[in-house]
Amino acid sequence: MVKVAVIEDDLPTSNQLKTWIEAAKPGIQIDQWFSRDDAEAAIARENYDLVVLDIELGRERHAGVAIINAINKQHATPVLVVSAMPATIYRSIMKALDAWDYLQKATFEEADFIETFLEILRSVKERKQHKESQTAAYKEAAKSPVADQLSMDPLRQRTPIWRGQRINLPLTAQRILAALFARRGQVVSYEDLYEVVKSGRNRDNIRKHVSTIRDAFREIDADFECIENVPMRGFRWVDDDAGRS
């Protein structure tokens, strides 16, 4: 049975999230926790498939950060952050902590939450089913002459690998990367990229996602230049050699 923890100190919000999860995935086990201490104790004894987490719990403004750190030390369980904290500030912080996605309260609908929630669960399932085969493939790719090429999960076009190393990206950035790589050598317009994002369908937001992708690649490869900006049109993935010319 799939086990999910909802860590949220506000009871109505916690119950609302529980109701949405039950509607999206009937039969799921949902544990509700309302304080940092109870949540950390549960994380230590349970192996959850997914944690839905608020950052601010009671008077502890950043209790959720401590909980994510505890999760990463023990199980590396996927975390979906649902918080009132401004996404413009906290999305990058959560990304640095390896949270899978970030939803800002009062800016999303039930459908947005359910879509993101189910998407993460599917990723978890696939990761469990194919972990061994993927690991073997990645090791083999790292030894081959084409190790410099981008490798993506063939099932969901996720977990990108560059030069034999994993690229950590939020889900929206992964979808944009997949769209660019699938049409490598061609211009992918802003309008086309709007189709792969759930919210923020404007040029500034797309540019921010692309900047996030570039930064993630450059943490591994400082000379990465494979995503080309095409002024007024969109972006294009170019071959490694071309991007470095």
Give a structural overview:
It holds the Pfam family Trans_reg_C. GO terms for molecular function: phosphorelay response regulator activity; transcription cis-regulatory region binding. Keywords: DNA-binding, Phosphoprotein, Transcription, Transcription regulation, Two-component regulatory system. This protein is an alpha/beta fold. It folds into two domains: 118 residues, Rossmann fold (3-Layer(aba) Sandwich); 96 residues, Orthogonal Bundle (Arc Repressor Mutant, subunit A). Helix content is 48%, strand content 16%. The strands form three sheets. Strands 2-1-3-4-5 form a five-stranded parallel sheet, sandwiched between helices. Helix 2 runs parallel beside helix 3 and helix 6 packs across helix 8. The protein is globular, with a radius of gyration of 19 Å.
Low-confidence stretches: 144-148
Please outline the major beta sheet: 5 strands, parallel
Name of the top-level CATH class of the largest domain: Alpha Beta
- Which fold name fills CATH's third level, the topology of the largest domain? Rossmann fold
Number of domains: 2
Distance between the termini: 52 Å
- CATH architecture identity of the largest domain: 3-Layer(aba) Sandwich
User: For this structure, what is the CATH homologous superfamily of the largest domain?
Assistant: Response regulator
The total beta strand count reads 11
Helix/sheet category: alpha/beta
Mean pLDDT: 84
The helical percent reads 40-55%
CA-based gyration radius: 19 Å
> How many helices does DSSP assign?
9
Order of helices and strands: EHEHEHEHEHEEEHEHHEEH
